[in-house]
Amino acid sequence: MAKHAGNDQLKKHAVYIYSEDQLGYKFSENHPFNQKRLVLTTDLLRKMNALTNEDVVSPRIATDEELALAHDARYIDIVRKAGQGLVTSSQTESFGIGTDDTPIFPNMHEASARLVGGTLTAVDYVMENKASHALNLGGGLHHGFHGRASGFCVYNDSSVAIKYIQQKYKARVLYIDTDAHHGDGVQWSFYEDPEVCTISIHETGRYLFPGTGNVTERGSGQGYGTSFNLPIDAFTEDESFLDLYMTAFREIAEHFKPDVIISQNGADAHYLDPLTHLYGTMKIYHEIPKLAHQLAHEFCDGKWIAVGGGGYDIWRVVPRAWSLLWMEMNDIPLPQGDLPKEWLDQWQPESPVQLIPTWLDPDNLYEPIPRKEEITEKNKQVLDKALYSIRSH
């Protein structure tokens, strides 16, 4: 891909895609997918003076034509009608909406299309050299399929964005997904495409939705060898998680040589997350974006687009994890001491749990894991199997 000419004096370091309109993606008051985490994260960054009005760019709404890059036109039509109350449950059942996971809500199409448009806004800023990096925390809905919603995800912003990059910018894309759930929707969208490489490190599907993401899922046809899965054991801790992530990401990037990196940054591999069984701490969320940042500069002239994803402890985990991601994009070092007192004072009365006042977690977050050595060894075997094809060349 030809590098875009651009005036580095005018180019912003990073842009933060956000508006309160993104909060319209809301299934119900009690649904675990709660966009309040966007408010909490944005407010935390503002209160620590890491985010200014100049950094923030409003997301646009993706057009039907753009959504159709990765979604069936009939599905888009059903989503629109469902959000207007114009369809029956029997009509929506086969499309994955109206379920417990992905219930119908008013203006569902518009809210979902805005999250996709946010990621497309991020893409254009980076690919047109207006910013080196861009962050859309409202995105990362990696379970959406061509003609079906799944796992809290209506439209799949990353799949649409990658197709959009291919069509508009003719670039090779490396997609890295560190959500605790397998990035299935994105993987299957590009399973036969040699120009897109997908990497997913996730809790094994033996106990966790969506049950896919086996190490043997490697792509097919011309795309064989461009799909990488690292299903790690339940109770995996920081050290083993980071060992697999650091090794796999670097070796695969060196092998694939992408033009742009898209990272999905679900924050649900944390010990406190209520929907998963991994034992990560804030240490992994301090380290994960560092390597994405580094590899983007090594291979992609800095081009790095990051999106959000899962994360269901919206009070103690997500705001800290996602703030660390934005701080890495802007070369802001890990702050010493506690989170801003103003932030803690504002949100503690509303939080149903005691907020953690420090950037990193306390040392005694959980009891020691008796199977640590066994888990670490099993994960290492997964890593060796996942990388066998590129190491044997």
TrEMBL record:
Domain Histone deacetylase intervals: 31-326
Pathway where this protein functions: Ketone degradation; acetoin degradation
Keywords, in A-Z order: Acetoin catabolism
Coiled coil region boundaries: none
Family designation: Belongs to the histone deacetylase family.
Protein name (database record): Acetoin utilization protein AcuC
Species of provenance: Paenisporosarcina macmurdoensis
Lineage: Bacteria, Bacillati, Bacillota, Bacilli, Bacillales
